[in-house]
Amino acid sequence: MFGREGFELGEKTEHARGKSIGGHAYDGAKTMRAVISGGAGFLGSHLCDYLLERGWEVLSIDNLVTGAEANIRHLAGHPRFRLVRHDVTKFIDVPGPVDYVLHFASPASPVDYLKLPIQTLKVGALGTHNTLGLALAKKAKYFLASTSECYGDPNVSPQPETYWGNVNPIGPRGVYDEAKRFAEAMVMAYHRAHGLDTHIVRIFNTYGPRMRLNDGRALPNFVHQALTGQPITVYGTGKQTRSFCYVSDLIEGIYRLMQSDEHEPTNIGNPQEITILEFAERIRALLGATTPIVFEPLPQDDPKQRCPDISKARRLLHWEPKVSLEEGLQLTLEFFKKQFAETQAR
């Protein structure tokens, strides 16, 4: 069971240099061991599940600022899983062997990173530096969860990895965009300077169970408004496009990239584009909502198009998404409706 402070009973979280976290009895048998920062988040928790199902041992490090203990509660008592509550912008020391360090910690929705701008920049800079240091010390492989936001408001669509982007570094969204761009630069520096075996994924819009209702992203916002009887808010004209990848497809792509020899950034996402207005109408219809759609001004630097070129992933990883938007939305909306009912019952 997890303790009330969010880490496994018996675990200690030490922020001071020289103190270790996540100690365990390592039996010497060769089990692949991963350290995942942000392991209680939406994507991090699904990655924990995926690795555990394949026999890995997983140490999740999360300060639960945007992650949630509920995302990994089902893993309480699992013999190969531990959660430690710790801020990765502070020094990390994990006893015992580590095979892979995966840095997924960061606010990721506009609501979160606009509310936590300094923390977002710190986890992209200091968090990346500390997790890279852990990988180097352990002679482990390293994996960075980067983002399509590196492309900013693109002038090229779909966006290939060779596109350098169109980012406003001092705009409100710059705290997230530039944190991830800096993180990518630092990962490549460690690869070139230290020979560290590193991998970088640029994640495009992803959805699925364990997203937070009303977290500022399109899908949970639309669902929350529809379920609460509020008008559904579409920003701008709604003609801007997004492409939505179901979480199981994304995690499969991430795992394949983990096992590859590719060190430069790789897009993982679903290339099927849909306008935001069409997406809102689809959500409203699936939920049987009758609330109107209202239009608000487009936020500053909001991308007009977001669509991945996944040619590289297809070629190198033999990966492409399999879950249709219809199937993925059904699964996700069932989760949201259950979550909403539980919230209403409290």
What does this structure look like?
This protein has nine helices and 13 strands. The protein is globular. The N terminus is likely disordered. Helix content is 36%, strand content 16%. It is an alpha/beta fold and 346 residues long. Helix 3 packs parallel to helix 4 and helix 5 packs parallel to helix 7. It has a domain of 217 residues: Rossmann fold (3-Layer(aba) Sandwich), CATH 3.40.50.720. It has a seven-stranded parallel sheet with strand order 3-2-1-4-5-6-11, with helices on both faces. It has a two-stranded parallel sheet with strand order 7-10. The longest helix has 22 residues.
Question: What's the SSE blueprint?
Answer:
Blueprint lengths: L32 E5 L4 H12 L3 E6 L18 E5 L14 E4 L6 H6 L1 H22 L2 E7 L26 H21 L3 E6 L2 E2 L10 H10 L4 E4 L5 E3 L1 E2 H12 L7 E3 L4 E3 H12 L5 E4 L14 H7 L7 H21 L1
